[in-house]
Amino acid sequence: MITRLSHLFLRTLRDDPADAEVASHKLLVRAGYVRRIAPGVYSWLPLGLRVLREVERVVREEMDAMGAQEILLPALLPREPYETSNRWTEYGAGLFRLKDRKGNDYMLGPTHEELFALTVKGEYNSYKDFPVTLYQVQTKYRDEERPRAGILRGREFVMKDSYSFDLTDEGLTASYQAHRDTYERILARLGVKYVIVSATSGAMGGSASEEFLAESAIGEDTYVRCLESGYAANVEAVKTLAPEAIPFDGLPDAKVYDTPGTETIDTLVEWANGADLGKTVTAADTLKNIMVKTRVPGGEWELLAIGIPGDREVDEKRLEASLEPAEYVLITETDFKNNPFLVKGYIGPKALQENGIRYLVDPRVVDGTSWITGADEEGKHVVGLVAGRDFTPDGTIEAAEVRDGDPSPDGAGPLVAARGIEVGHVFQLGRKYTDVFSVDVLGENGKPVRPTMGSYGIGVSRLVAVIAEQMHDEKGLRWPAEVSPANVHLVIANKDDAAREGAEGLAAELDGAGLSVILDDRKASPGVKFKDSELLGIPLVVVVGRGWADGKVELRDRFTGESREVDAGGALAEILAAVRG
Ligand code: ATP
Ligand code: MG
After folding, report:
1. What is the pLDDT of residues 289-318, one digit of tens each?
2. What is the whole-number distance in angstroms between the Cα of residue 157 and the centre of ligand 1?
3. Can you give the residue ranges of the Aminoacyl-transfer RNA synthetases class-II family profile domain (predicted)?
């Protein structure tokens, strides 16, 4: 196919769009691949659509190769199945809801576990039909709180989601492994650099779950790795290595001190080190109590106190993941007024427990650890308050930040942190949805059996942004051959009729050999054309320029920046060799 730039529906922009912060977003807009319609909602223009379709093709080829079967469910869904699974409520503000003309509730599908379970229930009824894996490549809708970076986090986006149905746990393990292998193949073909990390299960409930994170400093996911053991996890999934409990014998009694003006951890530590407590105190010796309100879907707001060592901040994502599906907010001045036992800056376990407030602590707060914490009176703290002796929390919570250098949960060494973009997610769901919809089939022994499910997602449109993000350079986009919108970008950089005809002829030959060619036949200066070729990012740029008169054509590698001259007569063979690697 020959695509003429004189004709292509394409306008490249010289300036970055005002709302763009990350490179992939800026470049995809400047290069005319996508256009913004609303926050998190984008149109695909010709070249962008080609890349999207190429990613889809790779995903489909690998899914088909693993034996999964493609179907397509609607994006417009009735409320009932999601009501049955309680996700109509659990999904909260993230769900796009609408009504039809009769007033019936509908939604735009954010993910399709319910519908796949019902679809299998509708068609299959015997153990002989299993295992089966179904997938779709489909537009998903999520009213993301913070749509970001163009198509990277959209409110409308394309996902490949698949669902495996097995009769045994071993079967599910095998289906899960097959997906994991397939995802590795897909990302290898796309040239994406990634890590596989353990993940929390999130709103879906279930057991084994891993995420594929593309390595990127602009990623919203933080993951940690232990280089000694190979342990790798999303920080949301990190379980704190709790120390051993300490015997109470010999621990001094707790004592309340006047500590005026010590509402912050810094001022408290400063006070403690001037108070002759017999040891040097650091922020890690203090216990700060953070008040939030939580609400389970459809329930009432409830106060919750979270106690974490004073040297750590709360990590909002970890807290969110720990509380899911409940949501949380920080408490307000009004809440303080309504609960006078909460003394701002001096909240302690005593008042919390006396007033029946649920109190969860960091796993480091084990029995026998001794803390400096609030004494529930303005200007007072208590020193030597011992967990398990002087207060008994209602449980532990993973809410504190994970830091570089923290011990790995497997005890093998320190953790190293980095950032990534989630591109895929594999998940052993179990029988959650087959239970909800009583999906039973006839077993071998004549008794009913309930299939167990896996659910697996790949962000197809997000991958376009991820590839752009990982591959670009300061001049523009750079597409790996597998997803490039064309094989060759042929620039006519010579006004001479003979050169123009020669370029047309070469383009026709390349087309004839099965390559797709972008032909820059515009009446523009060579400088403008070269800049656009760099911006558009086709991996091989061929220039018919001044050298044509001497029978020469220039080949430029967009990745290495290298260029070389070849004989016009041998150009076709050279280009074919370069493209086919
Ligand atoms: P995230 O943590 O980034 O919000 P998620 O965990 O909600 O993602 P899943 O429900 O696991 O996402 O969806 C499967 C895949 O779909 C993700 O791995 C990601 O690649 C893609 N995806 C999810 N949300 C979006 C979005 N808003 N825009 C583009 N792709 C998305
Ligand atoms: Mg996920």
Report:
1. 999 999 998 889 999 999 999 999 999 999
2. 9
3. 35-480
